[in-house]
Design goal:
Layout (H helix, E strand, L loop, with lengths): L14 H13 L4 H10 L6 H22 L17
Helix pairs in contact: 1-3, 2-3
Length: about 90
Amino acid sequence: MGVEAPSYKGFRFPVEIISHGVWLYHRFPLSFREVQEMMLQRGIVVSHETIRQWCAKFGQTYANALRRRRARPGDSRVGSWRDDYH
């Protein structure tokens, strides 16, 4: 019952750029226009509408992946804040 990876076929931008834009939108409290400005600062000219379309198509997949990776209380993979002081 695995989730099939989304297809990027037919998109103008490479997978890395699309995934970065979608990640920015879902990871931080940013608007589509703010993501557009951040991408422009990196030399990537993309409209906020394109970012909205990417998020509509790929967003749920990225959001699910972020939730799975988020550390939970008592997670053994993450050290305690007390570990910093010993």
